[in-house]
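Quick note —
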Amino acid sequence: MDILSELLNKDKWNEFLEYKLTKSHLNKTEETFLKQYVAQEKYLSIAQKIDAGSYVFSAPIKTLINKSGSTKKRAVYSFSEDENIVLKFISFCLYKYDYVFCPSTYAFRRNITVKQAFNNIIKSGVDNKFSYKLDISNYFNSININLLLPKLKAVLNKDARLYDLLKTILTLNKSVYNGEVITEERGVMAGTPTSTFLANIYLLDLDNYFYNANVTYARYSDDIIVFGQSETEINKHKDYILECLTKMNLVVNPAKVCLTKPHEKWTYLGFSYHDGVVDLSEVTLKKIKDKIRRKARAIYRWKVKNQKETLHAAKVLIRVFNNKFYRLNNTKDLTWSKWFFPIINTSNSLKLIDKHLVQYVRFLSSGKFTKQNYNLTYKKIKTLGYKSLVHEYYKFRQNEQV
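Predicted structure written out below.
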């Protein structure tokens, strides 16, 4: 049965639902909606038309959102509610083609984690190697559809109907921005459910080249790192990657390029590695400290304007970062701690974040950093709900060993 025929398969939709409920990061509202959607078979109307070949997808809505830690914005796309759920279902079914990706392609793959990516790199013995790391600028939206389609057709060679549907969606070159239909090159449209699979397909040849050459290499979406035994070898790898990306009409972000020598610290996916020590990268540490600073200053302005008590403002700041770090009200969400705790093996950066957050909790007393702020004791801060990252990290480690 091809994937478009599965759209009419109630059992497959229930399998999709079960997967989303157990493996995805849905909040309670999303869970309730999806359960009702599948139980009431609301997908049938659009699924029947797609199966019959008579459905035409709408132009997606384009939205610009702020990039984390930057003043720049990035474009994301979204289809209508029904179209989006159907594309999520198709994306779920596309895992049947996961076998085409090599083991060093890590992003958006079922049962493959960032921890596996990092551990596989470290186990290959990289302390004595050179490294080259880079980031592709605006990867998803820069993908050249004319170059992608032959690769996609080769993968979906036994699913012609799905290929034709995806080709139609990808070549529309229309989107809705600020309420108006515009014509633009959209790539695979970041934010849409099938974009992750398509992005993995696009650089399949590059991934396979290094895997078949038995080179330590990893690609997580637009983040690439490769290792070499010598400066000559790493430069050879670098030249090959840049040549390949140029042929694929992709551009490297020069601010995120890094070459390291043996025993020098290297970073990848927000982590740093130095002679066996895995910690947060300096960029990750700076981003979270900046977020704390900005949020604390915003809450202080709110406190003054609304004549709120210091303890009330402090509780708000603590709640904001408890939610970010641990998401205590919904443990299934992919929180900050769930990304970083399983991989780091030191609490050095966590100590700095703890100190920074406590400092800004006290800052809410006066809007300044003074000795008087210490009237708000650490013990009192804990009663407001504060949870130390260091403490939570070691508790996580302890539970992991049980």
